[in-house]
Specification:
407 residues; mainly alpha
Length: 407
């Protein structure tokens, strides 16, 4: 007799090449950041919003290097939990960091689902809770369908959302925006610097996404080669887009108006193009849906990986024989995302995600530092970054965390 459809024996399938990995990483990042949070960042950093994104990108770059090495040393879906287990040989610490990472993805998906409702309501006059429920359930069904289907849809969404940003950038350049003053070094006074620092915490949330590549590493065709390239390209592409869009946004629309708008980039689009923003609102819907889908997929893979290494109940590691996806883990993620999106406002979710992400990133950097200092061997072919990368990664993550608590 053959096994049941939820037999734990089937494994995840290696179906993803470099192009799909880059589209996945870029898509999950763009949708969470610029479409939803540019208003919140502008509300705190004002005309100096560009510097908040630059600061967040600099911190993120160090951690990208550490992730690239760890993901190729330990190419498993448990991601951060597996790295901590390898470095400290502690099941408790591994489980704690793994659950923290699951929470990050669930809360991030909730924040962006809430943001998507603001754009969807430009088309459909329904209560936000009803829209959120429909979004999460629909995308949860896609995530359960299959990884190739999920990432292919995410890739299509990425092309659409990047096209929306390029449309704004092209139109703004045509009208002479952004002016050089958008990149002026901010004054060194406490009020300005504190605004930029707090906004950088929100902007940091905008870069969350590349680490999702570490959690689908078991589904990459050539992880040791493609995962580091995909992470690097994701960071470079999103940084360029974010800096340009931030400069254009605060030059085109007063920061106070951006902060008050439920669909801030729609307001920027209307200003720089003079067109009805309906088409752009549709693009923004696609962008936010892309991030929700990718974050939910990532969270389910972490749960699957942790269950497979014994940190969570084994039933969560069950992979459906036909879809090749962890259905029980995916269902758990759907329930959690729905509950949080209905219970909390977007800025609280984004701030909480950023703080938790900084803590998780600090653990990844610390794990790599310990592995290198203890000369722990890894049999898998892997990239190798200079040891100052994880050292500086820890310091910058801790510094941003401390600033966020003090402000």
């Amino acid at each position: 007799m053959t096994g049941t459809p939820l037999d734990p024996k089937p494994a995840l399938r290696r179906r993803l090449g470099l192009l799909l990995l880059v589209l996945y990483g870029t898509g999950i990042t763009i949708g969470a950041g610029i479409y939803v949070l540019i208003g919140a960042v502008a509300g705190h950093a004002g005309a100096y919003s560009v510097w908040s994104f630059i600061l967040a990108a600099a911190v993120m770059a160090l951690t990208v290097g550490s992730y690239a090495e760890m993901a190729t040393r330990y190419p498993v879906s448990a991601g951060e939990a597996a790295y901590v287990r390898a470095a400290f040989n502690s099941r408790f610490l591994s489980t704690t960091v793994g659950l923290l990472t699951v929470c990050i993805n669930v809360v991030a998906a909730s924040a962006v689902a809430l943001g998507s409702a603001g754009y969807i309501r430009q088309f459909i006059d329904l209560p936000a809770p009803a829209i959120i429920l429909a979004v999460v359930l629909s995308l949860g069904a896609v995530a359960a369908w299959g990884i190739l289907e999920s990432v292919a849809l995410a890739g299509l969404f990425t092309l659409v959302e990047a096209g929306g940003l390029i449309w704004i950038i092209g139109s703004a350049f045509h009208m002479g925006l952004p002016p050089p003053s958008s990149f002026t070094v901010p004054p060194m006074d406490a009020a300005t610097l504190s605004g930029i620092s707090f906004a950088s915490l929100l902007a940091f949330f905008a870069f969350v996404g590349f680490e999702g590549l570490a959690n689908i590493v078991e589904e990459a065709k050539a992880p040791h080669r493609d995962i580091p390239w995909a992470m690097t390209m994701t960071l470079l592409l999103t940084t360029v887009l974010y800096v340009l869009i931030a400069a254009i946004s605060v030059a085109a629309v007063p920061p106070g108006e951006l902060a008050a708008s439920p669909a801030p980039l729609s307001l920027v689009f209307r200003t720089v193009t003079g067109m009805n923003p309906a088409t752009f609102n549709l693009i923004a819907v696609v962008a936010t849906l892309n991030t929700v889908l990718a974050q939910m997929t990532m969270a389910s893979r972490i749960i699957y990986g942790m269950a497979r290494q014994g940190d969570l109940p084994t039933g969560l590691s069950s992979v459906h024989a036909r879809t090749g996806t962890p259905l029980i883990a995916t269902a758990a993620v759907i329930l959690a995302v729905t509950g949080l999106a209905l219970a909390f406002p977007i800025e609280e979710l984004a701030e909480g995600t950023s703080l938790a992400t900084l803590a998780a990133f600090a653990f990844v950097n610390l794990s790599l530092l310990r592995i290198r200092m203890k000369r722990i061997h890894s049999a898998a072919p892997h990239v190798r970054v200079p040891i100052w990368v994880p050292a500086m990664g820890i310091l910058t993550c801790v510094a941003m965390f401390a600033v966020a608590l003090l402000l």
